[in-house]
From TrEMBL:
Name of this chain's protein: Putative multidrug transporter membrane\ATP-binding components
The entry's keywords: ATP-binding, Membrane, Nucleotide-binding, Transmembrane, Transmembrane helix
Lineage summary: Bacteria, Bacillati, Bacillota, Clostridia, Lachnospirales
Record GO terms (molecular function): ABC-type transporter activity; ATP binding; ATPase-coupled lipid transmembrane transporter activity
Organism in which the protein naturally occurs: [Clostridium] nexile
Cellular localization per UniProt: Cell membrane
Segments crossing the lipid bilayer: 20-44, 56-76, 158-178
Length: 243
């Protein structure tokens, strides 16, 4: 949980302007989503039912314009989202490299270069494709919630308690997913490391294995490890996709 808070802090501090800008775009998209059904209703009532060609053309053009603006806003948010992910993954890599460079020589003597590279790439991939998405979503949800609470305070105080209760449920759910996400990542790392080490061991000793006819035993063990790897990967993807 502490590490997750540091992730939140780092992502927000590194991208304050972008986060605020995307929040504004999100609010604009939300407003357009509210306007769109109203335009469709007017299109049906004033244009089609009353057979008013002028209003039909005007409202239809307005509907297309709203949809076009929504697409543009979503495209801009997607681009900013990708930039945040890539820049933060670069930031994490630099931190990891600095940490590795300060480790003792005994650490590297016990580890193979391929294994270190595999673990590093797996961790960065996990952070970039799941962790950062979750972090950014939490930041946007928190800021949006604060904005909504301020609006509700000025509109309806009783409705505010309902929203706070819903937000509390959302926070508890997010904490549950965060906790289990870390667990699934650690399990996946462990199984992926075993699979990689097993493959390296086979390639290093392939001649001896063939001579003693132990290659079939290796294949059986390798299939068992890969089945576990597939299962853990599917479990991880289910959590990362919010299934």
């Amino acid at each position: 949980m502490v590490k997750y808070i540091f992730y939140l802090r780092d992502v927000f501090l590194m991208n304050r302007k972008r986060v605020i800008f995307v929040l504004m775009l999100s609010i604009a998209t939300l407003i357009l989503s509210i306007i769109q059904p109203a335009v469709i209703q007017q299109l049906m009532d004033q244009g089609i039912l009353k057979q008013n060609i002028q209003k039909l053309g005007l409202l239809f053009g307005l509907l297309i314009l709203v949809a076009f603006i929504q697409c543009i806003l979503k495209y801009i948010m997607a681009i900013i989202h990708i930039k945040i992910k890539k820049e933060y993954s670069y930031y994490i890599k630099i931190k990891i490299f600095n940490h590795i460079s300060n480790l003792s020589g005994s650490f590297f003597s016990d580890k193979k270069t391929g294994e270190l590279v595999k673990v590093l790439e797996n961790d960065i991939y996990t952070i970039e494709n799941a962790g950062i998405d979750l972090i950014i979503d939490v930041i946007f949800n928190v800021i949006t919630s604060i904005w909504a609470i301020l609006i509700l305070c000025s509109i309806n105080f009783q409705l505010l308690f309902v929203v706070l209760f819903i937000e509390l449920i959302i926070i508890i759910t997010q904490q549950y997913f965060i906790k289990h996400m870390y667990k699934k990542v650690e399990e996946l790392r462990c199984v992926s490391g075993r699979s990689m080490n097993f493959t390296e061991e086979f390639l290093s000793n392939i001649l001896n294995l063939i001579l003693v006819k132990a290659d079939k035993i290796f294949m059986r063990k390798f299939r068992e490890i890969e089945k576990i790897n597939i299962t853990k990967t599917v479990e991880y993807m289910r959590f990362s996709e919010g299934v």
